[in-house]
Amino acid sequence: MYAGHFAAGLAIKGRVPNAPTWGLLAGVGALDILFGPFVLAGIERASLTPGVSPGFSLDYIDWSHSLLMSIVWSLAFAALFIRRGRTVAVAMGVAVFSHFVLDVVVHPADMALWPNATIHLGLGLWRVWPKGWWFVELAVVAAGVSYYWKRSLDDRSFGARAWAVALVVLLLHILNSPWLKPL
Ligand SMILES: [Zn+2]
User: Where are the domains of the chain?
Assistant: First the structure.
């Protein structure tokens, strides 16, 4: 999932307005951010497989995306924000873990319970619905950004340009549509 993660981060912002937006957006992307250096370091693998959204197959992502490691990264990220109070730290942890939850919906069964576990999770929407997954993620994006926008109207302490932020996330999702991809 892509824009759906950012929408989840914004929804958490709506719920916990004093959690810093930059931290939440980094948090929801943390597992994918880790994936990059892990591939470069050779401890994770991806390969180009035409026809499988998002255009490549994630062959081995156990250190960034397994259930156990997602919990570890969530706790580690939350710990970085503990000085800002418990509520903010919990919001940060939830942001990181939301990535795992949303990815389970779209990923084929490539998300291990723990590194090198034989059991893998993933409902596989990318494979089951090669184009339909986009509408499922659109629902996630719409729910997340509309909650964030609504909360920004109720609580004026944040989101002066919430509509613009919501629009950017929606645009990212449109750009990520399967109809705009060469594969
Ligand atoms: Zn991911």
Answer: 3-178
| Angle at the Cα of 105 from the Cα atoms of 72 and 92, rounded to 5 degrees | 35
- pLDDT tens, 5-34? 999 999 999 999 999 999 999 999 999 999
pTM reported for the whole predicted model: 0.94
| Span from the CA of 148 to the centroid of ligand 1 (angstroms) | 22
- The protein residues having their C-beta less than 5 angstroms from ligand 1 (an ion) are 31-32, 103
Residue with tokens 């999770």: 121
What is the distance in A from the centroid of ligand 1 to the CA of 169? 17
Q: How far is the CA of 102 from the centre of ligand 1 (A)?
A: 8
